[in-house]
Amino acid sequence: MSSDETEKTPAELLSLPNEVLCYLFTFIPPHDAITKIPLVCKRFNLIIKDAKFWSTRIRNEQSVRMPQCELRHPDYSPQKSFYMIHQQNQRWKDWESQRIITAPGHMATVDSVMLFSKNEKLFCLSGSRDRSIRLWDIQNVGSGENSEENKWTVAQNDTAHSGWIWNVSRNEESEKFYTTSWDSTVKEWSILDGGALQELNSVNLGSAVQCVSTSGSPNEVVCTTFARRTAVIDTRSFKIVADHQLHKKAVIGLAVQGDKIFTSSEDRMMMMVDRRMMSKAVLFEYCPKSYKTSLSLQRHQLLTSTSDGKVKLYDANNFNVVQSYTVTGILGY
Amino acid sequence: MSAEAAPVVVDAAAPEGMYYRVAGNDGVEFKVSELAIQQSETLNRLITTMCYTAEDVEKKDAIPIENIDGETLKLVFEWCEHHKGEAIPEDDDSVPKNVVIPEFDAKLMEIDNEKLFNLICAANYLNIKQLLNVSCKKVANMAKGKSPEELRVIFEIPTDEEDEAAEKAAKEAEEKEAKEAAKKKAAEKDTTDKDAEKDVQGTSSSA
């Protein structure tokens, strides 16, 4: 009957035209559609590998319009984007019902937290106004009460700085991390096997250091201060090798990608300088109504939070505003 | 006019009011009520553009559907009659689509794979959104949690090697046939040539 392959086209799943197969695949959960369906036969493989199949689904099913700067990026893959959007939708659909655990330990405001993973374990590093930094084991926090066997804080340094700790950043390759503080220093740390936090280096920038980023050139760390300074530090010598003072007030937002350093300040300016020529701003935006309180950069998209309650998405190549959302309340980090 | 004894199948619940005659590619005719036929956007557009009146239905031929057979049409119209008057669903944006298969549909679709795929094709061609949704959902449910090998077994999809081997065999068979046909033609040509020569040589052509 259906296995007669000589003259009659067998009435199997394969006899359906492509559009019907595509429609059918939208009924299958995305994870199976991406991992199992392409392995069944060549035709299914071709359909799932087709970028248009996923682009159409993003547009129609998820109602998402990608900005041009994302579409033109060489790493853009509609299949990956669809799957990530789907994951995030599932995750945040009922976020109010997710578990919330409060981890006590610090004695004052915690101004920065940083999540990272090492050897498949999840950690969190926190820096506080009580001048200490703590390393938390997230699996332990999630699995039960804080005890000797199930320690939540696996390492801490109570005299990390002599002032409030503003920010923490980590370099994935070297696994070292950096803290900035009101005491005008940037410090480099590493986590020893056994759990101790060891201070490796320190440099004084002359005034309270606000932001820090390790996403620039290898062996370099960029930081910003309240005295309008944006400085580049070489991690080998731990000395300042380049800086600029193009801002007129405290530099409170920083994002770095390779040679591009994006900064924002209370002077209502947002600018981008090239690491190789720090004296001049390549891109520049002056916004009279508000200033950017924080910056986040991914590929060519620059996400900013503003002091008047908005989240604005910019094209990082030309500072065109792609999208703008208004959020009620006061924005933090 | 339908020359052969094409049986006219009357629906179990003979429809009152306006109805239409539709025939599959094997000649089997169906009487479909107006509300039922409106479930199919293709047919609905056809009858509104053609402005079919009751007279037309009686006098003219049944609406022919070339690529769907009687058996599948029977299932299709059974579904339409049951769901007649229901609103056509809007496009659902959730992933994966939330389609609930009602009991009647589930029973209707307790058929083998071949008929099920024919049903999907028919629903696609006749543009019956909800029927397409439930039949696709049924196939998706069958495919749920199955590994690629199991999927190949359930849906009788040949593996790529089998596929290539089958293609190769088919190609070789074709070439063989073509060769033999060419040989035959050449042989025939020879004999006709020889006959022609004989005729020319012979004194009298007709006996």
Automatic annotation (TrEMBL), chain A:
Keyword Repeat: yes
WD repeat feature ranges: 103-140, 158-199
Transmembrane segments annotated in the record for this chain: none
Family matches, as Gene3D superfamilies: 1.20.1280.50, YVTN repeat-like/Quinoprotein amine dehydrogenase
Top-rank taxon, per record: Eukaryota
Domain annotation F-box: ranges: 10-57
Family annotation (Pfam families): F-box-like, WD40
InterPro entries found in the cross-reference section: F-box-like_dom_sf (IPR036047), F-box_dom (IPR001810), WD40/YVTN_repeat-like_dom_sf (IPR015943), WD40_repeat_CS (IPR019775), WD40_repeat_dom_sf (IPR036322), WD40_rpt (IPR001680)
Signal peptide start and end residues: none
Keywords: Repeat, WD repeat
PANTHER family from the UniProt entry: F-BOX_WD REPEAT-CONTAINING PROTEIN MEC-15, WD40 REPEAT PROTEIN 12, 37
The name this protein goes by in its record: F-box domain-containing protein
Organism the protein comes from: Caenorhabditis brenneri
UniProtKB/TrEMBL annotation, chain B:
Sequence segments annotated as region (Disordered): 158-207
TM region(s), chain numbering: none
Keyword Phosphoprotein applies: no
Ranges of compositional bias, category Basic and acidic residues: 166-200
Domain SKP1 component dimerisation residues, every copy: 129-174
One Gene Ontology term from the biological process aspect of the record: ubiquitin-dependent protein catabolic process
SMART domains, sorted: Skp1
Keyword annotations: Ubl conjugation pathway
SUPFAM superfamilies the record matches: POZ domain (SSF54695), Skp1 dimerisation domain-like (SSF81382)
InterPro entries linked to this entry: SKP1, SKP1-like, SKP1-like_dim_sf, SKP1/BTB/POZ_sf, Skp1_comp_dimer, Skp1_comp_POZ
SKP1 component POZ domain sequence ranges: 25-84
Family note: Belongs to the SKP1 family.
Name by which UniProt lists this protein: Skp1-related protein
Species whose genome carries this gene: Caenorhabditis brenneri (Nematode worm)
